[in-house]
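Quick question, first post here. What does this chain look like in 3D?
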Amino acid sequence: MKKSRFTDAQILAIPKQAENGVAVAVLCREHGISAATYYNWRSKFGGMDASLMSEMKAMAEENRRLKKMYAEMAMQNEFLKDALGKK
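> Answer (accepted):
Ran it through. Tokens below.
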């Protein structure tokens, strides 16, 4: 996964600045991000604090690990079915 050049605190602070009345175009120009990036961050992280964001990232990592484990088990199951079916 691509590493962001912004820290979690920065990502949370940018939408909060917009809530306080700073124009989105000014924020985007100031931080060097596109308007689409801002709106993606706002929809994804709006209303969160740092602890919720770190918890969400930990859950996403756990979900990735479990999906990988399931894919490996499903593949092993297919191999066993093929091997037992050919006898």
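Helices lie at 8-19, 24-31, 35-45, 50-85.
The mean pLDDT is 88.
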